[in-house]
Amino acid sequence: MELDDLKQAWKQTDKQKPLNKNIMEMIQHKSYGPVAALKKSYKKQMTVMFIIPLLLLLTNLDDVNKALTSVMFWSYVAFCIAVIIFAFYNYKIASKMQQMDGIVKSNLEQQILLMEKRLKWKIIGLRIALVFFILLTEIIPYFQHYRILYKWHSLPVIIRYGFYAALLILQYYISPKILQRKFGRHLNYLKSLIKEME
């Protein structure tokens, strides 16, 4: 009886090892798979956030000094740097997941939980950033001269505040969906692969 149990256990571990090995190969593959997709998304985000301030400077080439003394410009640069740093740390976690030898299920689960937590922080951070830029748009004309902001402030208050409210509501619903599509679905796929591991 014990011999039959031992044979059964041996057969199960024999079946599980290739499955775990295949799952690990899929997770750690350099060009496809959920971790590679996450790395690509983070790299793209860092690149875009690096290019946008440069484009803003290029559009203001006729008066670069005005852009460099602008509170709005430097606030946006600070926002871009924060996003780059955040994406870089997530990129490092994804790289670590891809390069680990003898990686264990609990370690992978811990890394995924950290990335999911950071995704929630990112959603909150984007909401705070939007509120900050709305406040900046309302306050800056008292300190610096922007022709476009004067045009904006010439509109009735009800229209401006209605637009801000619509923007906040839109961002509240759309931002999580975009982040889910860019990052969350890959994390969910990783979680499903890890559940298959024994």
What's the SSE blueprint?
Elements: H1 2-28, H2 34-59, H3 64-68, H4 71-99, H5 105-139, H6 147-153, H7 157-196
Overview in brief:
This protein is mainly α and about 200 residues long.
Per DSSP, the total helix count is 7
Strand-residue proportion: under 5%
Order of helices and strands: HHHHHHH
Number of domains: 1
Please summarize the sheet with the most strands. Answer: none
* Shape summary: elongated
Radius of gyration: 24 Å
Terminal CA distance: 25 Å
Fraction in helix: over 70%
Q: Provide the residue-averaged pLDDT.
A: 80
State the total count of DSSP E strands.
0
Content-based structural category? mainly alpha
The parts where pLDDT drops under 50 for at least 5 residues are 13-18
Q: Tags for this entry?
A:
198 residues, mainly alpha, 7 helices, 85% helix, 0% strand
Question: How would you explain this protein's 3D organization?
Answer:
It contains seven helices and no strands. The chain has 198 residues and is mainly α. The longest helix has 40 residues, at 157-196. It has one domain (2-196).
